[in-house]
Structure formats: structure tokens, C-alpha cells
Specification:
This protein is mostly helical. The protein contains five helices and no strands.
Length: about 110
């Protein structure tokens, strides 16, 4: 009566599996290598990169990251940013925060 019962919620669904780090590194390498074919490479790779980002990382995060990836690939000189690998690291840290010893911020 005086103590609150701890309520545990079960997730509605299992999170989608995380893409492999090797896949993300390869896609970032392709994005950086696009500079070899200056205009045509960027115009072809940018929408492909955005679509792959969306498919690999899920709907909401993938959509926002895909838009960022599209803009990043279209702007000359920003191809060096490893968007796939950065998102993989963020997702990995979120999923394994207890194992990594990270505290949750409330």
C-alpha cells in the first residue's frame, strides 16, 4: 500500500537486427570512393546511399539518416563523413548500454 510496485514493460517487438559493421564500413568506403567519378558518381550514389541507409537502420532513424546521407553525398567535399559507421556505433551503444556500463540520462 505504501510502496509502489515496480512495473516492468515488455517490448512490443524485438528490435531489428543491427547490420554488420563490415557492411557499414564497405558502404562508407564506396561513398568516399565516389570522388573518382565527380558529378555522375555523386548523382548516382546519393539516392542509393539514402535508400540503403533507410533499409539498414529502420523506418524513423533510417529515414532521417537517409536524408542526411543524401545531402552529405550530394554536397561536394563531405563524402569523407562515415555516416553508416557512425549510425552503427550509435545503435550498438544504445543496444548494449548495460554491457558497456553507460548510465541512462533521464
Amino acid at each position: 500500500m505504501f510502496f509502489k510496485k515496480e512495473v516492468k514493460y515488455l517490448p512490443l517487438h524485438e528490435p531489428a537486427p543491427l547490420p554488420s559493421l563490415v557492411t557499414c564500413l564497405i558502404l562508407d568506403f564506396i561513398g568516399s570512393a565516389v570522388i573518382v567519378v565527380p558529378v555522375l558518381g555523386e548523382l548516382i550514389w546519393a539516392p542509393i546511399s539514402a535508400f540503403l541507409f533507410w533499409r539498414l537502420f529502420g523506418f524513423r532513424k533510417g529515414f532521417l539518416g537517409g536524408v542526411f546521407s543524401l545531402i552529405e553525398e550530394l554536397i561536394p567535399g563531405l563524402n569523407f563523413i562515415p555516416t553508416f559507421t557512425i549510425m552503427w556505433c550509435i545503435q550498438y551503444a544504445r543496444r548494449n548500454k548495460e554491457k558497456l556500463g553507460l548510465k541512462t540520462i533521464r
